[in-house]
């Protein structure tokens, strides 16, 4: 049975955005917070204006010349945890999903609106238009 570790809001606005406060050395890849120089760090989508599309320059130059002001995403977390993408599609495994971090929805309650900011159930009528 699928059981998310954190709330949707945590994944959208805290996961790899808020700085890690742990003092001891630990594995960054399994820690939900952001670390200095970490490639997986995300910009808060409420403060930075970027679309859920991979940045072509980041691939080309290994580091995007526009940095934080770029309007594209720079890693898989920025891409998949973007409010316009995270849980806007159903997971093919449904509630049987065993991924520790899955970017898709497992129930209709989890399904989010593609428009970005709301819960899907409240906008079903407009959403598929
Ligand atoms: Zn950490
Ligand atoms: Zn970029
Ligand atoms: Zn899943």
UniProtKB/TrEMBL annotation:
Originating organism: Tetradesmus obliquus (Green alga)
Record's SUPFAM superfamilies?
Answer: CCCH zinc finger (SSF90229)
Q: What is this protein called?
A: C3H1-type domain-containing protein
Key words, A-Z: DNA-binding, Metal-binding, Zinc, Zinc-finger
| ZnF C3H1-type span | 49-77
Name the lineage: Eukaryota, Viridiplantae, Chlorophyta, core chlorophytes, Chlorophyceae
PROSITE patterns listed in its UniProt record? ZF_C3H1 (PS50103)
What is the top-level taxon of the source organism? Eukaryota
Where does the C3H1-type domain lie?
Answer: 49-77
Q: Which InterPro entries match?
A: Unkempt-like, Znf-CCCH_AtC3H23-like, Znf_CCCH, Znf_CCCH_sf
